[in-house]
Amino acid sequence: MKKYLVVIALIGLFIGCSVSKEELGRQVVDLKKGWKFTKGEVENGETVQLDDSQWETVNVPHDWAIYGPFDSKNDAQSKKVVADGEKNKKLRLGRTAGLPYMGIGWYRKSFELAENNADKKLNVEFDGAMSHAKVYVNGNFVGEWPYGYTSFSFDISDFVKVGKNVLAVRLQNKPQSSRWYPGAGLYRNVRLLTTNKAHVKHWGTNITTPQVSEKMAEVKIKTTLIGSDKCTLLTEIYNSSNLLIAKKESEPIVGNELELEQSLPVENPQLWSIESPVIYTVLSKVIREGEILDVYESSFGIRSFTFTSDDGLHLNGKRLQVQGVCMHHDLGPLGAAVNISALHRQLVILKGMGCNAIRTSHNSPTPELLSMCDTMGFLVMDEAFDEWKKGKNKNGYTHLWDDWAEKDLMALIHRDRNHPSVFMWSVGNEILEQFTDDGWKRAKFIVDIAHREDNTRPVTIGMNREAPAENNFAVQFDLKGWNYHTHLYPWLKEEHPDWCFIASETQSTVSSRGYFDLDAVPRKHYERENLQCSDYGLDYCNWSNTPDVGFAMLDDNPHVAGEFVWTGFDYLGEPSPYNLQWPTKNSYFGIVDLCGFPKSIYYLYKARWTKENVLHILPHWNWDQSQVKTVPVHVFTNFNSAELFVNGKSYGVRTKNPKEVYERYRLVWKDVNYEPGEVKLVAFDENGKPAMENSIKTASEPYALQLVSQYSKIKADGESLSFVEVNVVDKEGNFCPTANLPIQFSVEGAGTFHVAGNGNSTDITPFQSHVRNCFNGKCLVMLQSSEKAGTISLTATADQLKSAKLEVVTN
Length: 811
Ligand code: GAL
Hints:
By secondary structure, this protein is mainly beta. It has five domains: 3-7 and 205-304, Immunoglobulins (Immunoglobulin-like, Sandwich); 26-195, Jelly Rolls, CATH 2.60.120; 316-609, TIM Barrel (Alpha-Beta Barrel); 615-697, Immunoglobulin-like; 704-810, Sandwich (Immunoglobulin-like), CATH 2.60.40. Helices cover 11% and strands 38% of the residues. The protein contains nine helices and 50 strands. The strands form twelve sheets. It has an eight-stranded parallel beta barrel, surrounded by four helices. Strands 1, 4, 5, 8, 10, 11 and 13 form a seven-stranded antiparallel β-sheet that branches. The protein has a five-stranded antiparallel β-sheet with strand order 2-3-14-9-12, with no helix packed on it. Strand 22 (305-308) and strand 23 form a beta hairpin. Helix 1 packs parallel to helix 2. The radius of gyration is 27 Å and the shape is globular. Beta-D-galactopyranose is lined by residues 83, 429-430, 483, 505, 508, 541, 544, 566, 574, 576.
């Protein structure tokens, strides 16, 4: 934002670092490039004189483990998972993806201070570091933060000097510390912040809107100031067109660290909503004797919401069904290393099926995700923990709870409290304390902290089974989240008519994109030799259910505010139901696969969650006629009825039947004679008139490769990614849904081949390989821009197929 013209004196303070943002009185330098990294313990790794010239040079965000190799021996965990009905411990492979995230890693970064900084304050900020970070500056220990998901910062003013400085970070990941792939290293952004001594504290604004109406909103801003004696605080609010709409200046301040509260009115506020996510900006200016010493920028939204016990969530006075998904933090082939383009693409794909909410399961997300949710219109269930003191993992959070739970939760709330998208704090997921008699005490302890830090949002948790409703546990929470156990909802309502509910985790249906088991019946924990799950959306786990059963539960219990499906995207690790097999490196739970390709159920959700006409036919129509005589055809649609034709022959009309769960949300033709050709669907409107048609065709032999990029122009910033979908097609351009063949990639020009993937959970080819098998006709390549504008050109070749070329412009 350029709301002020004065150029500050701090320019050029750092040499060799790119200045990413300048505001009056403060300078932010992203520490992205030129880090030195090595794996393993290094004696005196923090010292200035250490020679790190032989270490690898890396850019941050960096995930040291995503380069693999995948190996079943990496973090094989002997565990008994009670929810899986296991009576004894079993050796679970691939639980953390078989990637080498364990061990110690050292990062070092030199930076120069070009001018005397005696009058300045210098902070180093980490958006998260995996894990057990110990931070040193010029050989001095400056602080530590063990939980790898929490953002933290340290004041390093006393440790820096003019000239060369060395920032060193030691990280350590213990095996058996996670139930999914956690990532490893400086996987989120790191920056240096310089301010004057008088400044707004880190995360130092707390903006709430206690009164909201269409005519007027009261905006309450609490600002924590440091070194502020004799300063005034000028607070300005700007609307989304950057116009100053309200301001207030305090009296001169007495004291050096204090919180000031100001209340500003906003007339005719534009309310934040899913459809219209309007963002306002606050500039907090610290002024002494006419000189502006600091300008701190925060953004917020004006909205009101309430959870009701009988009618779910109301946002700005209107009922809103939460159509959410749970998301782990990894970005598939990129691992845990944060990348803006990849995060954005995930949200675009999710929005496309009508998703309006994200649960950051089961930990603090990267801050960029929340900013995107603010501006793209997603609600967020901001979650802190997967375990408390009663451990789920041998080396998990259980060891941190006593000393860190309060600090971690405070960090989450202080960092995230101004985001309009955040509409509840979740303090846990399937916490084992819920089953103990005095677990409620720990619940109360953590809920009290959340209430103390922010009383504008409900505190929730993902519970499971009956016990927490019967002991004193569930009572502690403002909003009761239940995972799965759809049959409990009517009972819960009956027993506790005044409780407000959200289905904090639903479905856990398992599927593999494009693989269809023609025995299309609901199957609980079903294992196949090919280690795949069927794409009919009917395979589920011991504790879980199909979407159809989950939808029925919500439709029959409209008091529940909505759901968070497990999961939006596939993620690395937890390959249920193939936890004991190898190779299986990633989950099957996603509605979308690991590479961002929708599985069939994407359209089941889209039909339910959007008003767009959906008429999706499954399976594909490329079967071996000598083996396959009949095929079950399922149609995911929001039309009530449709007629099916194969090569012109009608197989009759099907109409949704609210009394049969597997006919309530999908149209099913059980035995359609298989003959190659065309399957056509004609859907009917309420008056029985044809309203929409769709068809699929049998493809002939694979003939060519086809490259499609949704991001054909990207920034020449050395970070942005273009995502290129690679399809195998026949001579007429029909997609070949059963093609599984190797494809080679080469890249020239203003960027690089970054990674590739195909969504196949069993493929353990490193993501960085330039050769990739397509999986059921598709794979994905990610190209990364360099800092020089130009054209990136990608060529894809495969034996006996026509090759393809695609250009991406960078500027
Ligand atoms: C839930 C759990 C999730 C994930 C999921 C898989 O019980 O909360 O983290 O493990 O099961 O179905």
